[in-house]
Amino acid sequence: MASRQERCSHCGRLLVVPREAHDFIKCAVCHGITQIRPTNPLNHTHNIAGRLKGFINTIMNTTTSSVNNSNGTSHFGCYYPPPQSLRPSYHAYGSKRAVLCGILYHGKSYRLKGSVNDVKCMKYFLIKEFRFPSDSILMLTDDKEEKDALRFPTKQNMQMALRWLIEGSESGDSLVFHFSGHGAQEMKMGHEREGFDEAICPVDYEQHGKIVNNEINATIVTPLPRGAKLHAIIDACHSGTLLDLSCVCKMNRQGYYTWEDHRRGRVDKGTRGGLAICISACDNGQISVDTSALSGKEVTGALTYSFIQTVQNEPGLTYGRLLGAMRSTIRGTKAGILILNGPIVSLLNRLLGLQIKQEPQLSSSEMFDMYTTRFIL
């Protein structure tokens, strides 16, 4: 009799079920407990094939089915995770893959207006300018039109998407992580010089917490293999070192730059030989903006808009030129003053003359010449 197999309901790994097991089995990898379904070889094979097809369809945009609870409403906390290894199935999509997350935070006092616009623009940009296959771009938003619960940017879904982004990557791959939403700083007792960790805020962060830089580094930076390249474009406050990379570029207004070593004696959080580059909206102590001042019409994130505009206007530009041009675009808008959308900040601007400035930052897993290295995805 052939060995039975059951997929772990926690990590998705395929498990071999001992003959003596009747009700539950424990995963040796994640230690999760999975209930064993009744033994019926035909039904069992059909279920595995059906679930695997469902995983692939969900991730690759070929289904819009949502996960519902008994009342027929979306239940975002319950879903089947994808298999541990998705990469072999995706060689047909080439070596480019992207995860784009845009969060508006509907119904909150801190609601944003441009985040979903940002990721829609970024998807179009990646397809048009850098030939990313549409099927290899996973977009998570809280857009009211989004019906698929797996594409709702909860903490768990975002963590799953980041694992999918890096899973099976190899030499020659180009990976992109774009986030547009709220960023924050978390008090941390550890190696951070300021006493803070930088973090991004999923839509459910008030219930389940933020995703901090250490976790992002461990998920998509540390496993990056030699010959692969990761670009993170982070349109959020306090995002200067969000990927916790070893090298931070410090550039003045004249374009002169130096590299700072941010390892500071701690264990190096580098890659497995790949190159990771993070382009952030602002320094850790600065605020980024959600504004219509740049586009003149639609509300967008200042970083996302200036990034796309600069790359489109100057094909073949270097990283140094990219960073400098983005800063000039933002600085030149309204004499360097960008007004955040929202009644509270608008009131502060009127009463106190508040000036909100931001300067995009660049960090990397290794140092390089900013003015000879071409930007390419």
Automatic annotation (TrEMBL):
Q: Where does the record place a coiled coil?
A: none
Superkingdom classification of source: Eukaryota
Which SUPFAM superfamilies does the entry link to?
Caspase-like (SSF52129)
Start and end residues of each Peptidase C14 caspase domain: 96-368
GO BP terms, alphabetized: proteolysis
Task: List the GO cellular component terms.
Answer: cytoplasm
Example GO molecular function term? Answer: cysteine-type endopeptidase activity
The entry assigns this protein to a family as follows: Belongs to the peptidase C14B family.
Which NCBIfam families does this UniProt record tie to the protein? LSD1
Name this protein carries in UniProt:
Peptidase C14 caspase domain-containing protein
Q: Origin organism of this chain?
A: Clitoria ternatea (Butterfly pea)
Tell me the organism's taxonomic lineage: Eukaryota, Viridiplantae, Streptophyta, Embryophyta, Tracheophyta
